[in-house]
Amino acid sequence: MDLLAKLRRGINRISLALCLAATGVNADANYLVAVGGSYSMATAAMPAGLEKVYSNLAPEYNFTDYGGKVFFVNGGHGFGGSLGLVSAMNARALSKPGSAIVDDALTRMNTTFGGSHQLSSGKYSLGLAWVPLLARYRFNFVDNLLFIEAGAGPAYGFGALESLVTATNGADARSENRYHKFNEWGFMTNLTLGANINLAAGLDLQVFAEGAWLYAEIRSPNLLVSDSVVWQQYFFRPGLAVALSF
C-alpha cells in the first residue's frame, strides 16, 4: 500500500534525524536515543463475524517494522517515549461465488441494470497498521547489561479495504470497484526485555524482545455494514536497535 510505504519512509527519516542529533557522547550519560527494527508476529485478529464476508481469506500477520525511542536517564532509571510502526495485518486474494461481498455486488448490479448477473472475476485487498506514541519507563540492571521497559499510550490506525467485482448477464459485462479507508484510534501497551552490547563509548547494540497488546474499535469494518467491531491483537516482536548515550 502506498500509504504504508510513505509512513515507513517518514519514520525512517525521523529515526535518522534522532541519530544525527545525538552528539557529544560521554561516559556520564543523561540521554539515550535508540533506533532500530523488529520482526513483528501478531495474533489472528479478524473477528469471526467478518470472515464470512470474504472468500479465501488468508491474512498475513508477520511484518518487519521500524521505530525509535528517546529517554532521559537518571541512574538506572529512564523516562521517555517511543514512536514507530506496528503492522497489524494484510490480506489479498480472489473473491469467489457465494461470498457475501460478491453477493452484495451482484444484487446491486441486478437492481440497477436488470438481468441475472454472474460473477466473472473478483478480488479484494485489506490492510491495517498502527503508529503508537507511547510513554515509556526503562530500568537498567546487572551493571547496565540488561534492561526492561514498559510503555502505554494512544495508537493511530490506518489502512484500506478495496474490492473489485466483474460480472456478466450474458450480454453485458459490469464492474464494481469499492474502496473504504480506515482512520481509527486505539490503545497500546507493551513490555520489553533486552540486553546491551557495548560497541564503543556511548554506543550500544540492543537485542530485545517485546510483547504488546492493542485494543481498538473499528468503525465500518467492511463494505457491507456500518457497525463497529472490537479489535484486540497481541504482538511478539524480537528486534535490534542502535542506542546512543550522551
UniProtKB/TrEMBL annotation:
Span of the signal peptide: 1-27
Keyword presence, Signal: yes
Superkingdom of the organism of origin: Bacteria
Keywords: Signal
Name assigned to this protein: Outer membrane protein beta-barrel domain-containing protein
